[in-house]
Amino acid sequence: MARKALVVDDDASIRLLVSVTLKSLGFECIEGEDGQEAFRLALKESPDFIVLDLSMPNVNGFEACERIRGHEKTKSIPVLILSGESTQINREILGGALKANGFVAKPFDRAKLLAAVRDIFPDLA
Predict the structure, then answer these.
(1) Tens digits of per-residue pLDDT, 38-85?
(2) I need a labelling partner for 68 at 20 to 30 A (CA). Which of 50, 77, 78, 112 fits?
(3) Angle at CA 7, nearest 5°, toward 111 and 125?
(4) Contacts of 52 (CB under 8 A, 6+ apart)
């Protein structure tokens, strides 16, 4: 059974690029447009991990991550932050406030995204 990834970004082209990259590793991908949808889909679909943008309309990635971490059903799902806000992100924020499992800056490099996913799932080829 394929692992399932939830890809959440308000930019459809980014969602597509991330999904295509993850599918090359054998992931089934579900896509969402904002943080509200991220939380709803995380509850409904129980993905194996979430790729989450920070700057989105309605509910941003910070709040979405907080909701995901605050719910019993979703709190242990690994979250990989994918954001252009690299100057505001550091290990303290990732490990502390966001409790994220990794970070990839946008525009993202395919190799860096794959490496970050393999850090979460070391058994991937």
Answers:
(1) 999 999 999 999 999 988 888 888 889 889 999 999 999 999 988 876
(2) 112
(3) 40
(4) 8, 9, 35, 38, 61, 64, 65, 79, 80, 81, 82, 100
